[in-house]
């Protein structure tokens, strides 16, 4: 099959769309261009997806484009069509829907941040210091002087002295390796080494190695050890111990496009294991070996786990 006719994975198509949208928003952002170049060089399919997106450059303004989900579906349909006119016609169908809504108003935080990752992407950042910073899937981070600001998602910080803020607090690490994550309604901190001082409107607390803290608008709450290893993702792994199946799927779903869930009758089943984040299809197959379930995949975007 020629490169021009090759079908690309849905996740890669979506990532190319995200890069296109981010560049439209920040065309002169040097760091963003460097991130894009690294992404293109990482995989030949990335470069192919980007070249296909570039074929459409200049045809539409950002305010006219549909959201990423609509656009990706149209691009997938157009992949085997060699006619540029047909491609633009397909895109035109999507543009007719909700054309008065600005894309920028729907853009996730990552499109407006200094550093960001797409769904399924993990990235180490070079900030020119002795601090090691790693962004997890679908995360966004800003840098203001010596302070890092987590806008969404999750970040791992490892260094002698660092300052990082989340939604409700400022975290200051000393000889610390820690993970900071934004969850629904609260932020979460886990410390693997050293100590982190957390300062919020509701008070302050020092979190020692091996401990976790939930940071909420109304206070600070100590977290007991959970079923999920909070640091494993930085090594490309999802490590769980006696976790509910629905909770496992919610976590695994952070690293893939589309919907991933299960029927209520199997939600409470529990599993333990080590899974590779870069092999989502194998991860799902392994579930059926560990539990009496089957994986129902209607499309790449809709996967359900049901009773076997």
Automatic annotation (TrEMBL):
InterPro entries: FecR_N, Ferrdict_sens_TM. Residues 15-56 form the FecR N-terminal domain. Pfam families: DUF4880. It comes from Pseudomonas reidholzensis. GO terms for molecular function: sigma factor antagonist activity. This is Protein FecR.
